[in-house]
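re: ur question from yesterday

yeah so i grabbed the chain u mentioned. its 137 aa long if i counted rite. heres the sequnce exactly as i have it in my notes:
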Amino acid sequence: MSLIGSAPTAVVIVLANDSRLLHIECAPSLAACIALLGDGTSFVRRFGFEQIVYCERYDRYSLAQARAEQLRRLPHHELCRLIAISNPAFDAIGAEALDQFPIRASLPPQRRRRARRSDAILPHSLPMQPPRSSGNG
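ran it thru and got these structure tokens back, copy pasting raw so excuse formatting
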């Protein structure tokens, strides 16, 4: 199946360089994603991000942008764990294989983090207690 002839879908890709630094990019189509890698003046090429190690496809560009932001907020070890699920060896994904990923219509659920509270929140303030006397009176 040709990349140019495929249905227009937005993609979120995670790129890696030789030292396994990761960069998350969002592109409006698969063709734009491939063009990013081919353009010699792009940020991706200047810093050596030549391997696509993770890819997600979405039916709308706005969803792809939102997912890219979610991935950018993940700690590095969680992003590596997510990549390792689908690509354990961190091998480069070929351009032909990008067309094989399913197209998503919604964002995956995110784990909610509990808010940390140092003090209990009370519905009202407690009455002040008078200071105790020492008993030597």
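noticed a couple things. The chain has a mean pLDDT of 78. also The chain is about 30% helix and 15% strand.
anyway ttyl
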